[in-house]
Amino acid sequence: MSHQLHLNAFLMGVGHHEAAWRHPRTEARNVLRVGHFQELARIAERGKLDSVFFADGLAVGPRIERNTQAVFEPITLLSAMAVVTERVGLIATASTGYNEPYNLARKFASLDQISGGRAGWNIVTSGTADEAANFGYDQVPDHDGRYERAAEFVDAATALWDSWEDDAVVLDAETGVFADPSKVHTIDHHGDRFQVRGPLNVPRSAQGRPLLVQAGSSTSGKDFAGRYAEAVFTAQRSIPEGREFYREVKALAAGHGRDPGDVLILPGIVPFIAETEEAAKRLEQEFTDLISPEYSLRQLSQMLGLDLTDHPLDAPLPPLPPIEQIRGNQSRYQLVKELAARESLTVRSLIAALGGGRGHRTIAGTPEQIADDLQAWFEAGAADGFNVMPPYLPGGLIDFVDQVVPILQARGLFRTEYTERTLRGHYGLGRHTGRFAQVAAAAGA
Amino acid sequence: MSHQLHLNAFLMGVGHHEAAWRHPRTEARNVLRVGHFQELARIAERGKLDSVFFADGLAVGPRIERNTQAVFEPITLLSAMAVVTERVGLIATASTGYNEPYNLARKFASLDQISGGRAGWNIVTSGTADEAANFGYDQVPDHDGRYERAAEFVDAATALWDSWEDDAVVLDAETGVFADPSKVHTIDHHGDRFQVRGPLNVPRSAQGRPLLVQAGSSTSGKDFAGRYAEAVFTAQRSIPEGREFYREVKALAAGHGRDPGDVLILPGIVPFIAETEEAAKRLEQEFTDLISPEYSLRQLSQMLGLDLTDHPLDAPLPPLPPIEQIRGNQSRYQLVKELAARESLTVRSLIAALGGGRGHRTIAGTPEQIADDLQAWFEAGAADGFNVMPPYLPGGLIDFVDQVVPILQARGLFRTEYTERTLRGHYGLGRHTGRFAQVAAAAGA
């Protein structure tokens, strides 16, 4: 089998586009229907996609009017989606900032059991003031401190996932033994922020343990990805930038003693698909025209940590502070700043550019053109695959699955059938070997 | 419609009996299968039961060999059960000791959305040393302190559930408004243990907010139930004791300014059902004979906080310390102590008595006898209904639903069809009115 690319579907309400739910191609009430999300999972599975994914935040945010995400919590929602699918991977975002390692490791392990080994965790550190205020903090904990906590959190969580050996569950009715206690281990984690004895109260899953995903592109974020992530969601706007990011994260992984092939780089794309390029661009424009600048200005203000609500729409951005002064999401800040500077955008144009993909790359074209674009990035070494962010749902996902995926398959770039049953399997990572099995193997060698 | 009783099914792995999974009537591997639990939910719904329920703990516990519960986390599991049922209520146990109010309120609110208003929360304070060690505590936080934390936790969580008014979700594609920000409120909770600004990022559900359940029977536990609980799971071994507990909790509720009818008392029962009383008792004995005393001694030691593993099986219990010295689960301690004292049990007999129901009342008899027993308790004012703990699953639940429920229905004691769609509705509580709607109503009056 030739080298193939990987595809994740980023599911955001009725679409990734800011104004998706105002467009006639969507049904706004779907944001309240669990059946809508179950159907999206089935569509992704029909397309043999590696996984589906939900973003998350721990606050309603400054734009209640537009926060159509404020309905379901991702892990509970993915559990409901797991039981109507058999193969597609299920990735939830969850915060290391405002959880306990035992609780969160357990939720993911439980989802991993429910789904037969298809769970993944997109690790975020939670960088907004609104989130901090829901957990007793006057302000956002500082950026480096958040990453230090995240590292200790992941160390404890992965140790918990490893605390049961693969063959610990005995289920011997004759002798009356459910699990062999000699194969279930305390972890005795003693760190600066957490003390966790273990073991977890969930056995290992069909994939060993959940997949680790990460999306931060700040300096700390990239280093964290190199150390822990098995898949990286990233916003890259050109092949040269994508290649640079790709090389950098793979090098960081190698620097942490890992095989660079064990961390997959998946840039985001927002595809507008139509029979002709003109029709696709018209479709994109329809969505852009539905953006309300006043709401978007508030979103942009939050992204930049700068009040722009009285700033004239047709002027360029005011000068922005250096990234070191940003406590919140540094990668998003940097992206917006670079985009505005490079393309000399007015605030209005910046809002339109961000509205489609929230900073990710929009491609409007025919299925062939989109497949060409993905192939070019993949073959240039700028991507191991893509985080596909349909601008409207379910239509945008259906079109991608029914029109773009078959072209990638015909070119030998994407699987035509699942060959694996687990999320780690789809990403070519194989079953995870727990630390106790590693110790046993080393002792036997 | 005459006054009717309520029925909850306590689902524990392949049965509530200690040795259930060793008996030929069960399939031990079912403890690992989400499909098993989905089937149990369907059976409960076929029987028109009010709800199903999972216990929970945040540690694997001292008896890994026997802890068949250590597979799924209840909320994720109930989410997978919600989507294969339409009516039955879904109650999960969760700890106020080792969670944050925002996170837990959100998980339940999300389950409530996924299930269309069928979620309930059994509030526990987590009283074991094994749990404490997974969250950075050297020992179990003291009993009163746990209840103080629980009270503040529930205050914050219920405020979060009320933070959206009923008509806050607008979903107006024309104007581009998802929610009306004037109807989504911060809660600004400032307490000794928690600071939570809110609002929650989940709207109100079909039942307003999740049902609150409680199961502690210590002095603090009963007061807590009187203050907050809408349903109480309790272990009561005789009608006089049941009546006393019933009167006490209802009076406590009245003392907190509540309608005593808004807190339902549901004692636990473990039914062994067969065509004759003799056959039912033989069936019970088969299960008792499968108990391994050495494992049960460890469980008993944990319940009492006293190492009994070297104590002779055929001697009575050693003298037990006064309840005030118990940091852990005081209600379970008191129950075991009283049971041992009243019936002058040897340790072996105590283990057998506890093995069936872990302290709850076992009834072995014909379907008629079991229905008679439940009716007697109900009509004596000792119960508003029952927490049914099938000793083996699914068989014990199937027999209860197919053989006992029809008798209760024929006597007019139990619904023959669901008349409501929500858990609160089943329990006769009506939709919960949020505090902002209450304020508005008061202002309008």
Description:
- Two copies of one chain form a homodimer.
- Chain A has 445 residues and is of the alpha/beta class.
- Chain A has a single domain, classed as TIM Barrel (Alpha-Beta Barrel), CATH 3.20.20.
- In chain A, 40% of the residues lie in helices and 13% in strands.
- Chain A contains 15 helices and 13 strands.
- Chain A has helices at 34-46, 74-82, 101-114, 129-133, 143-161, 219-228, 239-255, 277-289, 293-304, 330-342, 347-357, 367-379, 395-410, 423-426, 435-444; strands at residues 6-10, 51-54, 89-95, 119-124, 169-172, 177-179, 189-190, 195-196, 211-214, 231-234, 264-273, 361-365, 385-388.
- In chain A, the strands form three sheets. An eight-stranded parallel barrel of chain A has the order 1-2-3-4-9-10-11-13, surrounded by eight helices.
- In chain A, strand 1, helix 1 (34-46) and strand 2 form a beta-alpha-beta unit.
- The interface between A and B is large, with 73 and 73 residues.
- Chains A, B: It is an enzyme of class 1 (oxidoreductase).
- Chains A, B: One of its GO terms (molecular function) is oxidoreductase activity.
Number of strands of chain A: 13
Task: Report the portion of residues of chain A in β strands.
Answer: 5-15%
Strand order, largest beta sheet of chain A: 1-2-3-4-9-10-11-13
Q: State the distance separating the first and last CA atoms of chain A.
A: 31 Å
Tell me about the biggest sheet of chain A? 8 strands, parallel, barrel
Instruction: Determine the fraction of residues in helical runs of chain A and give it as a percent range.
Output: 40-55%
The CATH architecture assignment of chain A turns out to be Alpha-Beta Barrel
Question: What is the 3D form of chain A?
Answer: globular
Low-pLDDT parts of chain A are: none
Summing up helix and strand content along with how strands pair, one would put the structural category of chain A as: alpha/beta
CATH class type of chain A:
Alpha Beta
CATH topology of chain A: TIM Barrel
Report the order of strands and helices of chain A: EHEHEHEHHEEEEEHEHEHHHHEHEHHH
Mean pLDDT of chain A: 92
What Rg of chain A, in angstroms, do the CA atoms define? 22 Å
Protein name (chains A, B): LLM class flavin-dependent oxidoreductase
Family (chains A, B): Belongs to the NtaA/SnaA/DszA monooxygenase family.
EC number (chains A, B): 1.-.-.-
Organism (chains A, B): Nocardia fusca
